[in-house]
Every structure is written in structure tokens, then in C-alpha cells.
Amino acid sequence: MKPIHFLSLTCLCLLSISSCKAPAGGPIEGTPWKLVYMNGDIPEELEITAVFQSGKVTGKGVCNRYFADYEIESGILKIGPVGATKMMCPENALLESQYFGVLSKAQSFSVNGKTLNMECEGAKLRFVKGEETKPASKPES
Questions:
Q1: Can you give the residue range of the structural domain that contains 30?
Q2: Is the residue at 112 inside a domain?
Q3: Domain count, the chain
Q4: What pLDDT, in 10s, does the model give residues 106-140?
Q5: CA atoms of 41 and 114, how far apart (whole Å)
Q6: CATH number of the domain that 104 lies in?
Q7: Is residue 9 part of a domain?
Q8: Quick one: 4 exposed, middle or buried, by C-beta within 10 A (0-12, 13-18, 19+)?
Q9: Structure confidence at residue 74 (pLDDT)
């Protein structure tokens, strides 16, 4: 192989690898995330969560469980339409509805330590790592 062809092929390979960006700061999968900011702080007593795993994001809104498909391609996060249960929660229905609407407009994200920042059309979201839920252990006999 001529040196110029080898060099060209090497450059092409490096260029294609660099265009497949890894998530900035680390992966988001398999971690329970708690929403703490959506264009403003979320009241601490509200538990809004997200878990990304195997192409599905699931979690709890203010009072409803939700789910959606997602994919990460070249560092871009795309979340499909959000489906949710239909429990009544008149006090915070607007906040939950806004969260579900913004989540499906995700554009990019970054992980910085225990913080997940997400840029969405119309909102900035910030999550912090939540507690892992472990199955209850059986009492020893």
C-alpha cells in the first residue's frame, strides 16, 4: 500500500471515530436520576425521577408513572413521546404536564459527576443521582 493511501485511510478512520461522540461526562444508563431543576428549582418534597435503560426511559412524574423510548446518536439525546398513567393530582398537574412535554423535546445532555444536565427545546433540566433501589432482603432464620 502506498504511504499516501495509508495516510488517507488512517485520517478517514480517525475522522469517522471522532464523529461518534461519547456522552459528555459519562453514561446516563442504569442510574436513577432525580429532577431538581426545570427552568427553576423543583420543590424538594416532589419526587420526579428518570431511569434510562436499554432504549427506554421510565420514572415517576409528580404523581404518575411514565415511559418513553430514547436513543443517543452522536452525542444527541432523542426521547420519543411520553406515555403515562392517568392518576389525578390537581395540585401539581401543570408541573407534571410541563415535564412530560419538555422531556420529549430533549436535544443534548452532559453528565458532570452526580449531575445530569439536559438541554430541551424550551427548557433546561438538571437531575442528580438518586438512590439505587435494592430488593428487600429476606430475614435470616
A1: 22-129
A2: yes
A3: 1
A4: 999 999 999 999 999 989 999 999 865 444 444 45
A5: 17
A6: 2.40.128.270
A7: no
A8: exposed
A9: 85
Closest to 41 measured CA to CA, from 129, 131, 127: 127
What's the chain's average pLDDT? Answer: 81
13 touches 20 (CB < 8 A) = no
Q: Are strands 49-53 and 32-38 parallel, antiparallel or unpaired?
A: antiparallel
- Single-letter amino acid code for the residue at 7: L
Residue 48 near residue 35 (C-beta atoms within 8 A): yes
Contact 82, 66 (CB under 8 A): yes
Tell me which long-range contacts 11-18 makes (C-beta under 8 A, separation of at least 24). none
Q: Please indicate, yes or no, if residue 141 is contained in any of the structural domains.
A: no
Can you give the pLDDT at residue 1?
52
Q: Which of 132, 38, 68 is nearest to 59 (CA)?
A: 68
3-state secondary structure of 69: strand
**Alpha-carbon distance 85 to 28, whole Å?**
24
d(CA 94, CA 75): 30
Using CA of residue 2, residue 4, residue 8, residue 14, what is the dihedral sign? Answer: positive
C-alpha cell at 111: 453528565
